[in-house]
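[#protein-structures] MJ: dropping Sulfatase-like hydrolase/transferase here for a structure pass
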Amino acid sequence: MKKQIILLMTDTTRKDMVGCYGNKKMFTPNLDALAQEGIRYENAYTCQPVCGPARSAIFTGTFPHSNGMVTNGVPLGANVKTIGQRLTDNGIKCGYIGKWHLDGGDYFGLGCCPEGWDADYWYDMKCYLNELSENERVCSRQPNESFQPDFSEEFTYAHRCSDRAIRFLDQYKEEDFFLTVSYDEPHGPSLCPAPYNTMYRGFKFEPSAKFTDDLKNKPLMQQLWAGDKLTADEKQINQSSEGLALFLGCNSFVDYEMGRVLDVIKEKMPNAMVIYTSDHGDMLGAHRLFSKNAAIYDEVTNIPLIIKGGEKGKVITTPASHIDITPTVMDYFGLHIPKLLEGKSMLPQIYDTTIKINSEVYTEFTRYEIDHDGFGGLQIMRGVISENYKLAINLLDKDEFYDLKKDPDEMVNEIDNPEYLEIILEYHRKLVTHMNATRDLYRGYQWSLRPWNKNFTPSWDNEGFTRQRENEEYEPRQLDYDTGLPIKEAVRSKYLYEMGGEQ
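AK: finished. structure tokens for Sulfatase-like hydrolase/transferase:
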């Protein structure tokens, strides 16, 4: 039997924008049907709630701080290999159709197919713009174009991505392959044709305490981010608008476009594995905030994740992470999972949902994007999340700790509550251990020198270890600074050698 995986992605889809996650006002019949045929993950998290860094983790299996793409507008490190390169080198066909956002170009990309992917099907957003006249390019960025009498689905990026995906599936239906279809929708400008362009007119979210969060005892950055919304009442924040209606309409439109691809999969390769996810969410007024930034709130970090190819109609509540997608794909194709990858294969869990893969998962934030420097400036956050708790260390601001069972709306920051100190310290140890294990280039004593961690004494040497990269698949083994010979141990004391002699 052929081994085939299709990864469907959308941009800026919150978990509660997919109907099967419980919001009956969301019209997403194709994703809902996919969930019935597979597994729905309730607590799946992005590795960083920004487009490029989130995608870097998905397609490299390494965290943004490891692969170098800590913000939008910078490229992956030259020595970083994507899943496409790894699979292609093992004889597996790889296609990538849609938004890439990993080449260091502007929002649209460079239009150049990276190593490891089928150039005949490469179609990032720059390729789309190259098909358009100058006037059409401008129209493609204007939300109001959705209401023009002659606007059609054929003009949209989503439709053209689906067309190419369908051609790929037809051409390679008898071969092993990995295909990514990465839609920009429903991300703004949220272009969509009738009836989707008016489907959510008048919509607003159900009343929630989240819209009234005064952000006291929260990071200053969040208060600045809220701006004049900090003193607004819920009616001013949670209200219907043309922008929200179009955004949600586009969300239903891209579900329709994915449905076109899913129909072909069902007809021509019913045994293929299908993965659906989104890169991150949007605050949409929760906690008086909009868009995304250095936050650990569910609205931006807790993304939809649906996988068909194992058990059917199951829901998993234990934590899942984008960091596990690349090792899962490699495991599915029977390939060795490289030591360099920082996630784990979810394949055992996909086939048996009683298996637990993660007790906790990790998310991060480092700055924003180069051409949007004004959005909060330098923000550095590292977070650890379980079913019960969230800890966010905001390096230049106030830290956060939430008891998710007691406070699922994440309204009360318990970081200064002495009743939680032991749990906070436990999660803090997990986070620092994770930063060390993944060679986080921003680690240092500052992550432990927190106001609530009163017994910590900083050291110039930090923890006293040298940690080198172990990647033996695509590059020579790194050399030991003290000997010039290949490293024997990647993690070792900084003081193993001194003055030319071994201690």
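MJ: nice. The longest helix spans residues 242-268.
AK: one more thing. The radius of gyration is 23 Å.
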